[in-house]
Amino acid sequence: MRKLALCAILVAASGCTWVHLTEAAEDVRIGYAGDVQSCKMLGTVTVRTQSKVVMERSTSKVQEELYTLARNQAAPMGATNLLPHGLPDAGTQAFSAFRCPQISEGLAAR
Q1: Residue 19: pLDDT band by 50, 70, 90 thresholds?
Q2: Domain spans in the chain, listed from the N-terminal domain onward
Q3: 84, 74 in Cβ contact below 8 A?
Q4: In whole angstroms, what is the distance from residue 75 CA to residue 97 CA?
Q5: For residue 109, what pLDDT is reported?
Q6: Cα separation of 47 and 70, whole Å?
Q7: Mean pLDDT, to the nearest integer, of 7-21?
Q8: Cα 81–Cα 87–Cα 93 angle in degrees, nearest 5
Q9: Tens of pLDDT along 24-79?
Q10: What is the pLDDT of residues 84-99, one digit of tens each?
Q11: What residues have CB less than 8 Å from 101, skipping those under 6 apart?
Q12: pLDDT-based confidence at residue 2 (cuts at 50, 70, 90)
């Protein structure tokens, strides 16, 4: 009975997301090359999460955690946008961090 309960807990935990978005990171977006053409590159952010807890975790949960971790790490840099460097590999993913002009800034300059 204990083994069954332990297995159920491990299976349930393997699908959970443990990483939470910070308030500062709420405005950091994950984008694509077309989204950052008029932006200043600030650097690279590389993040890692567990892709396996006893068994492989859901790809979407791992990606969600990587995005959250990257947004959290990029916010203190002053980044507004992140551009992924390809797909995650074994729970690791790199992003280019950019500071992009806000739409309201462009309107104010007119």
Answers
A1: confident
A2: 2-108
A3: no
A4: 9
A5: 43
A6: 6
A7: 58
A8: 65
A9: 999 999 988 888 889 999 999 999 998 877 677 888 889 999 999 999 999 999 99
A10: 999 999 899 999 999 9
A11: 38, 39
A12: low
For position 48, what pLDDT does the model report?
95
Which structure tokens are listed for 17?
A: 């997301």
Which superfamily is assigned to 2-108 in CATH?
Hypothetical protein apc22750. Chain B (3.30.110.70)
- What's the confidence (pLDDT) of residue 21? 95
Residue type at 21 in one-letter notation: L
State the maximum Cα–Cα separation within the chain, in Å, rounded to a whole number. Answer: 70
Which amino acid does the sequence have at 36? V
> Is residue 47 within 8 Å of residue 92, measured between CB atoms?
yes
Q: Print the SS3 string covering the chain.
A: CHHHHHHHHHHHHHCCCCCCCCCHHHHCEECCHHHHCCCEEEEEEEEECCCEECEECCHHHHHHHHHHHHHHHHHHHCCCEEEECCCCECCEEEEEEEECCCHHHHHHCC
Tokens standing for residue 86: 């390809």
**Count of residues in the chain:** 110
